[in-house]
């Protein structure tokens, strides 16, 4: 399943990513302790297996420790320890190591041909490829560097991915080919602690605010926000974590969260402020919106304007934040007074996604659970509980309209995705939307769509089948005729 997509601006990623440092001895010891604790809390079947293995006679205590560690590692990989040890012994039996030194064949005294000739120097032997080990190692290193190199023309695309119980960020490279069709492959993966729900790319580096980086914030089913450095491969720990559980937990009691610095439920939406670069907004199923100071990792402001889950947030300007909720409303908060001033619009159904028009400073769109898309003008905001009426209402999908995206370079060109498995392209000129093209991308229910800022006609789509589709929308004749000029 793919739940969210984020494009990385071209040139933001390092040409050759950094490999994560190997774990320290302390981290290894902690891992051993975790394995030991897990083994101690094993089920009854494991306990019975341990009792049976107690009859084994081994030469010394070191062998006992090695077998115990093998069982623990096998268990961590989802296999029973007895089966793992059995597999090892079966493999050794097949090798017949006891008979290793027994020679069955007699030595042949006479040569059988040129291949049996003896050469004093390997350089004279025609059957030996003349290549030293240093050359092999250099070639391997060069090949690895070439595989990991991100070219200046490459575009990096990140998707939040789930398969069975494995959650990750898939970092892919998109290459634009001459025929217009993009080529795509996974560059590396980042493991996540829980099911991912939303993402936001950002360049703020908390270790050096003046030096831009390549980071992505991820909201999950847990009430925490993980921030990962996309320029590091094989990393297993996030660069930073916002919110989360307090270190002081009371057994048998409900989890205690860090005071003022954590959501209490799943994080559903994220929005980075590209102007005030140390600010990240998050929305949650706990009905709140939080503004985080990335330089300190602390929550600076908490908004409680909604009565339902807050599904989406978006910055209209550096000081104005929009939020959409399951309470069938959109709220615009003025952050110059920490959100005390706000305006509210009523919508037809639960909000699925919310986007601001990059070509019109007054316009924003919401996609709804009933398949509708509605557009609003911020100038209709009033001090009343409900502001102005929508500028248009579009029946975009037969099921929930789960995602919406503006083409960054062409005004009035948008894409929508729905749980009806369709991706649709629209012309919304003069507030009279019309469908330009549609596609069943074979992704299952579509959860996310996103245009690329560096190649504005490329549209990335993902859904319930866990496949990623990059659609060159300019290949559609109607799009080329309408927006390709």
Overall pLDDT:
80
Round the Cα radius of gyration to an integer and report it.
Answer: 29 Å
Share of residues in strands: 35-45%
Please count the helical segments.
6
Counting DSSP E segments of at least 2 residues, the number of strands comes to 29
Q: What characterizes the major β-sheet?
A: 4 strands, antiparallel
Could you give the order of strands across the largest sheet? Answer: 1-3-4-5
User: What is the global morphology?
Assistant: globular
End-to-end distance: 36 Å
Q: Could you name the ranges where pLDDT drops below 50 across 5 or more consecutive residues? A: 37-89, 103-115
State the share of residues found in helices, binned by percent: 10-25%
- Structural class category: alpha+beta
Question: How would you characterize this protein structure?
Answer:
- With 485 residues, the protein is α+β, with helices and mostly antiparallel strands.
- It is built from 6 helices and 29 strands.
- A 4-stranded antiparallel β-sheet has the order 1-3-4-5, with no helix packed on it. A 4-stranded antiparallel β-sheet has the order 6-7-8-10, with no helix packed on it. A 4-stranded antiparallel β-sheet has the order 11-12-13-14, with no helix packed on it.
Write the layout of secondary structure elements.
Elements: E1 2-8, E2 18-19, H1 25-40, H2 44-53, H3 61-76, H4 81-95, H5 133-148, E3 155-163, E4 166-176, E5 182-191, E6 196-202, E7 215-220, E8 224-229, E9 232-233, E10 240-243, E11 267-272, E12 279-284, E13 289-293, E14 298-303, E15 310-317, E16 320-325, E17 329-334, E18 341-346, E19 351-356, E20 363-368, E21 372-377, E22 392-395, E23 401-406, E24 413-418, E25 422-427, E26 434-440, E27 446-451, E28 458-463, E29 468-472, H6 477-483
């Amino acid at each position: 399943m793919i739940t969210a997509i984020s494009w990385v601006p071209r040139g933001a990623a390092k040409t050759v990513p950094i490999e994560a440092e190997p774990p320290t001895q302390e981290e290894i010891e902690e891992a051993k302790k975790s394995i030991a604790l897990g083994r101690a809390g094993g089920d009854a079947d494991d306990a019975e297996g341990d009792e049976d293995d107690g009859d084994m006679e081994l030469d010394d205590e070191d062998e006992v420790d090695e077998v115990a560690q093998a069982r623990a590692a096998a268990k961590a990989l989802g296999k029973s320890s007895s089966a793992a040890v059995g597999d090892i012994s079966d493999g050794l039996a097949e090798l017949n190591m006891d008979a290793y030194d027994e020679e069955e064949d007699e030595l042949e005294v006479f040569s059988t041909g040129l291949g049996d000739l003896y050469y004093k120097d390997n350089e004279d032997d025609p059957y030996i490829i003349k290549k030293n080990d240093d050359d092999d190692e250099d070639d391997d290193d060069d090949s690895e560097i070439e595989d990991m190199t991100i070219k200046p023309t490459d575009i990096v695309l990140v998707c939040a991915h789930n398969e069975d119980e494995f959650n990750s960020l898939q970092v892919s490279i998109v290459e634009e080919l001459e025929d217009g069709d993009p080529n795509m492959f996974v560059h590396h993966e980042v493991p996540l602690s829980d099911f991912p729900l939303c993402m936001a790319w950002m360049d703020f580096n908390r270790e050096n605010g003046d030096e831009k980086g390549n980071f992505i914030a991820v909201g999950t089913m847990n009430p925490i926000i993980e921030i990962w450095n996309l320029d590091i491969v094989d990393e297993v720990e996030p660069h930073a974590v916002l919110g989360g559980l307090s270190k002081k937990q009371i057994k048998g009691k409900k989890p205690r969260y860090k005071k003022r610095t954590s959501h209490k439920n799943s994080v559903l939406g994220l929005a980075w402020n590209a102007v005030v670069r140390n600010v990240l907004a998050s929305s949650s199923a706990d009905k709140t919106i939080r503004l985080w100071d990335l330089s300190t990792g602390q929550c600076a402001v908490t908004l409680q304007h909604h009565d339902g889950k807050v599904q989406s947030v978006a910055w209209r300007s550096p000081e104005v934040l929009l939020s959409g909720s399951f309470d069938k409303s959109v709220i615009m908060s003025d952050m110059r007074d920490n959100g005390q001033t706000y305006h509210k619009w009523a919508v037809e159904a639960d909000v699925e996604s919310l986007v601001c028009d990059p070509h019109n400073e007054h316009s924003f769109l919401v996609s709804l659970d009933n398949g509708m898309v509605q557009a609003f003008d911020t100038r209709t905001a009033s001090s009343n509980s409900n502001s102005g009426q929508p500028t248009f209402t579009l029946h975009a999908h037969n099921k929930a309209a789960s995602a919406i995206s503006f083409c960054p370079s062409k005004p009035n060109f948008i894409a929508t995705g729905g749980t009806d498995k369709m991706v649709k392209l629209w012309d919304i000129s003069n507030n009279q939307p019309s469908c330009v093209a549609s596609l069943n991308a074979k992704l299952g229910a579509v959860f996310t769509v996103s245009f690329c800022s560096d190649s504005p006609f490329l549209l990335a789509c993902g859904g319930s089948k866990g496949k990623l589709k990059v659609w060159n929308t300019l290949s559609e004749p109607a799009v080329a005729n309408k927006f390709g000029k």
